[in-house]
């Protein structure tokens, strides 16, 4: 068996998968805080495998496929399991609860499949079509970690449904969401505003011990949708203006 330098980033990817499996076990054993911590750790490994792959110049289609398979478990199945066990015991044995809790996993897998078939290069993208599955997972776990227990008990199941449905719709949508900038001066010079916003969000999450993560993720989710709507309205307006002016082929604009 030939050992190549691509093994190094793949080990980080497999560590991501291991954390996802451990998070599922912890959730079913009644240790949600530990499960949340493991999913966050999986996110760290998910970020590091791409960085290491570029440092070792070992990016490949195999690595992309492996990364997607591991992400499906760590950021799709594990958050869905956390959602399921967060419902009241009286609701956990109903079919609708299982369906609603499974939505992030189902949407996340569809999101990953679409990303893989549309992949044209190994370079970092500035935007993603649909919210990335790690961002969806962090939205869910940040709500469960801090905000779920602050909601009155009668409203908690409704809040779980809302978080599950909204996050799932964002992942399978065609809305453009910013990619997480790499921590480098090049990334700062390329997109200083986006870099500063993400950096401020990271610092706020650390200072508030994750309390600021859910509001920041909702800002990310809603902000992308609002920007998409504004661009759509602008493009429609430009198209209408072109038609009024008698442009022979407005679709070439």
Can you describe this structure in just a few lines?
The chain is 72% helix and 2% strand. It has helices at 7-28, 32-55, 61-86, 95-117, 133-147, 156-172, 185-190, 192-207, 213-244; strands spanning 127-129, 176-178.
Sequence-ordered SSE layout with sheet pairings:
Blueprint: H1 7-28, H2 32-55, H3 61-86, H4 95-117, E1 127-129, H5 133-147, H6 156-172, E2 176-178, H7 185-190, H8 192-207, H9 213-244
Antiparallel strand pairs: 1-2
Helix pairs in contact: 1-2, 1-3, 2-3, 2-5, 3-4, 3-5, 4-6, 5-6, 5-9
Q: Can you tell me the CATH topology? A: Four Helix Bundle (Hemerythrin (Met), subunit A)
The number of helical runs is 9
The strand order across the widest sheet is 1-2
Backbone CA Rg: 20 Å
Backbone shape: globular
Strand content: under 5%
Return the CATH class.
Answer: Mainly Alpha
The helix/strand series, from N terminus to C terminus, equals HHHHEHHEHHH
CA-CA gap between termini: 54 Å
Total discrete domains: 1
Summarize the amount of helix as a percent range: over 70%
The biggest beta sheet reads: 2 strands, antiparallel
Unreliable stretches covering 5 or more consecutive residues: 243-253
Count of beta strands: 2
């Amino acid at each position: 068996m030939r050992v190549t330098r691509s093994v190094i980033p793949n080990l980080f990817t497999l560590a991501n998968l291991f954390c996802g499996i451990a998070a599922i076990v912890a959730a079913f054993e009644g240790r949600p805080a530990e499960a949340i911590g493991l999913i966050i750790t999986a996110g760290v490994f998910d970020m590091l495998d791409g960085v290491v792959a570029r440092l070792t110049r070992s990016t490949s289609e195999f690595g992309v496929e492996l990364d997607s398979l591991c992400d499906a478990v760590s950021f799709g199945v594990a958050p869905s399991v956390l959602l399921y066990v967060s419902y009241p015991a009286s609701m956990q044995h109903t079919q609708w609860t299982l369906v609603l809790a499974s939505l992030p996993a189902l949407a996340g897998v569809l999101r990953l499949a679409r990303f893989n078939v549309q992949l044209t290069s190994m370079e970092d993208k500035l935007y993603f079509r649909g919210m990335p599955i790690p961002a969806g997972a962090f939205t869910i776990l940040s709500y469960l970690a801090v905000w779920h227990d602050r909601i009155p008990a009668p409203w908690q199941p409704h809040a779980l449904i809302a978080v599950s449905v909204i996050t799932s719709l964002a992942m399978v949508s065609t809305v453009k969401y910013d990619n997480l900038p790499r921590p480098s001066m090049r990334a700062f010079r390329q997109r200083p505003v986006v870099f500063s916003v993400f950096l401020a969000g990271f610092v706020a999450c650390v200072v508030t011990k994750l309390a600021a993560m859910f509001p920041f993720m909702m800002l990310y989710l809603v902000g992308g949708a609002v920007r998409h709507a504004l661009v759509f309205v602008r493009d429609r307006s430009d198209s209408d203006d072109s038609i009024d002016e008698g442009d022979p082929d407005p679709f070439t604009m």
